[in-house]
Amino acid sequence: MSTRTLISPATLARPRGKAVYWTVFTAAVVLFALAFLFPVYWMVTGALKSPDEVARTPPTLVPKHWHTGGYTDAWELMQLPRHLWNTVVQAAGAWAFQLVFCTAAAYALSKLRPVFGKVILGGILATLMVPAQALVVPKYLTVADLGLLNDPLAIWLPAVANAFNLYLLKRFFDQLPRDVLEAAEIDGAGRLRILWSVVLPMSRPVLGVVSIFALVAVWQDFLWPLMVFSDTGRQPISVALVQLSQNIQLTVLIAAMVIASIPMVALFLVFQRHIIAGITAGSTKG
């Protein structure tokens, strides 16, 4: 069965058609690469310029004089090690809580099939229709009543209730081969043993995707950490960049933004294969 494309194989076989095809393809790839990578380049090189050169009009594409002091000043003046560590603690805790509870709930809804399971799942998915801003005040009042202000638990516990990640896990569990689970059950494995020894090893791709979503959500969140962390020493990097930027030079602030974005970029580059595999795995049946 032949695949239909915009350009027929006969046209592509001709020298002129092949030249036009590769010219358009190369131009599209270059344009998309520039559109995505140029802002990153502008941010990285902006920290290497002097304050006067950053504010110059028209701007310069390449720094005339390379000033690396912006990165060292950002590291020391804005206390980035402390705030980066706060962010790591908050993101790691939210990731662990979310992975444990969302996986358990998704496994129960998918394989244990409780009474009114579809109703419960529908109620969970209905929360996706509620704007996140509408939940800020109830969450804050709950956290304040529990005495969790300025505590990492104020970030960890609300992160557990993630309907999107729960549904993503549930859909993946639905597509796992049933005969494998039945074979483990015949061998005497209980529900928890099947989850730990069979389901989780087979679910590494989707667990990687959920992990990335959980970590990025906490790493880039600003409003909620700003509300629950009044202590400057406990604030994550996203809040600290804004709170400490009033008396800081623009080049130092740009350098701090570059440093703050490095962990997430490195995380994606390391686990990009698992992320893509997890996204595509949910679109095909196992």
The end-to-end distance, rounded to whole angstroms, is: 24 Å
Radius of gyration: 25 Å
Dominant shape: flat
**Mean pLDDT, as a whole number?**
85
What is the strand tally?
Answer: 0
Count up the helices: 15
What order do the SSEs take from the amino end to the carboxyl end, as H and E? HHHHHHHHHHHHHHH
Q: Can you give the helix content as a percent range?
A: over 70%
Key phrases:
286 residues, 0% strand, 72% helix, 15 helices
Question: What would you note in describing this structure?
Answer:
There is one protein chain. The chain has helices at residues 9-13, 15-46, 51-54, 69-77, 80-112, 117-126, 136-145, 153-160, 163-174, 178-186, 191-202, 204-220, 223-228, 237-243, 250-281. By secondary structure, it is mainly α. α5 (80-112) runs parallel beside α8 (153-160), α5 (80-112) crosses α12 (204-220) and α10 (178-186) runs antiparallel to α11 (191-202). The radius of gyration is 25 Å and the shape is flat. The mean pLDDT is 85.
Could you outline the blueprint of secondary structure elements for this entry?
Layout: H1 9-13, H2 15-46, H3 51-54, H4 69-77, H5 80-112, H6 117-126, H7 136-145, H8 153-160, H9 163-174, H10 178-186, H11 191-202, H12 204-220, H13 223-228, H14 237-243, H15 250-281
Helix pairs in contact: 4-15, 5-8, 5-9, 5-12, 9-12, 10-11, 12-15
Concise overview:
With 286 residues, the chain is an all-alpha fold. 72% of the residues lie in helices and 0% in strands.
